[in-house]
Amino acid sequence: MIGRLNHVAIAVPDLEAASAQYRNVLGANVKAPQDEPAHGVTVVFIELPNTKIELLYPLGENSPIQAFLDKNPTGGIHHVCYEVDDIIAARDRLKAEGARVLGDGEPKNGAHNKPVLFLHPKDFCGTLVELEQA
After folding, report:
1. Of 3.30.428.10, 3.20.20.70, 3.10.180.10, 3.40.50.2000, which CATH number belongs to 5-133?
2. What is the pLDDT of residues 65-86, one digit of tens each?
3. Chain centroid to CA 66: how far?
């Protein structure tokens, strides 16, 4: 059901410093920051030959990333994102298998302007999973 790894998301306490580290130290292709108010984050994508890294920084008072950074002040891996061909079919299959879809269960447009859903980390080895329609 899942396809390729779309990205690994890393919550960071300093978006500019993290971007500079990937750009200057690792020589990565670092994109410009983009605000995603519907998700309470500012994101920076780092393009790799086989996938992407997504740096996440809190946007607004109710950002879920701020809560993550409160528990992990130096940042860390927040979630992994896998592509699926049909997000509704994937959601329905996962729910039938007992997996918990976060939020209201309806896909929302993510940073790539494609439908996304998040799955409860307790159902996937302690890892928050994002599904994105390919």
Report:
1. 3.10.180.10
2. 999 999 999 999 999 999 999 9
3. 14
- Classify burial at 117, counting beta carbons within 10 Å of its beta carbon; exposed 0-12, middle 13-18, buried 19 or more: buried
Does the annotation count 130 as an active-site position?
yes
Look up tokens 């500079």; give the residue.
20
Catalytic-role residue among 54, 83, 106, 130? 130
pLDDT band at 54 (very low <50, low <70, confident <90, very high): very high
Distances (CA, A) of 84 to 5, 34, 88, 132: 10, 24, 9, 6
User: H-type helices in the chain, by residue range?
Assistant: 15-20, 64-71, 87-96
